[in-house]
# Entry
Amino acid sequence: MDDFNLIEQSISHHFPLIGFFNDEKGKESYFIVGDYNPQSFQALASELGEQGLVPYINHEGNYYKINIGKKQEKGKSKIHLNIILLLATIGTTLFAGYFYIASGNIWEALEFAVALLVILGAHELAHYFAARKHGVHATLPYFIPAPTFLGTFGALINIKSPIPNRNALFDLGYSGPLAGFVVAIPVLFIGLYYSTVLTTQNVNVALPDPLIIKIISQIVIPNYTFDNDIIAHPIVFAGWAGMLVTMLNLMPVAFLDGGHISRSLFGQNLHKFISVIGIMITTMLGWYVMAVLMALIFFMGKSHPGAMDNIVTINRNRKIIAVLMLIILIFCLSPAPASTI
# Structure
């Protein structure tokens, strides 16, 4: 480890240093300390940060271990790339809406595209503002155009600095799915208001409905029961896509939003077990491509490092939010369509 003596001196200045562990294979090394104090860790993180280093503290039996990593150098954000990708995604979602969803009606295609981009934008902007709240550097959303049924692979932000503690990791995890879900609700109400119960089998697109869509349908569509299918207004497909994005992101796997939540609540070892369960659920629902991608990220990528401070306690309000996010996941669960067109 570079500058070992300087690092050891910094740690011993803030914590009672017990020793240093380095396994025989050289895969992991860490300092062992005998006490924990959040203010002391913040001071250590600030001190090591000036040397281009990042500390991570976790439980280690009756003690605590501090791993040291290097700060990742990130290039400057390129706002013009955000704009180009947004414009391209507007084009691909309009194309998908016109040819696949709205049956050649340009206005309904526009309504679909706007509704979908608003949902995706709300999801990623919530992540962005949660990151800013906790002093984490992040880019504005990058929308991803794609030649698919919906015209997009979604959107993402790039986190450019370490996440300071478990509470911040939890907030970054839940904020996006919650915002996307909240925005998708009125979108579904509007779309389902203009939808009707299916009375014939002549339908162009058949999508399995998650529970939340069935509940809203019963509220706004006359004579609807859970056994009915509907002739959906194109805006409904935007709301459905929003619920799909929420469901997949809330799967508690690896670095997905649900993975952040799981890692912040349960720690590294239990998070790995829960990740496997999330991959299994995704597979059982028939989202095979997503399940394979999740598996590749989980089994071939690095394990989730958690936050820098993985000791600080998750407060009661966040635990209540965690239960709410589980309920939202259940409301959004939806099997993959057997056919789309």
Observations:
- Strands lie at 17-22, 29-33, 53-60, 63-70, 142-145, 152-156, 196-197, 230-231.
- The two ends are 57 Å apart (CA to CA).
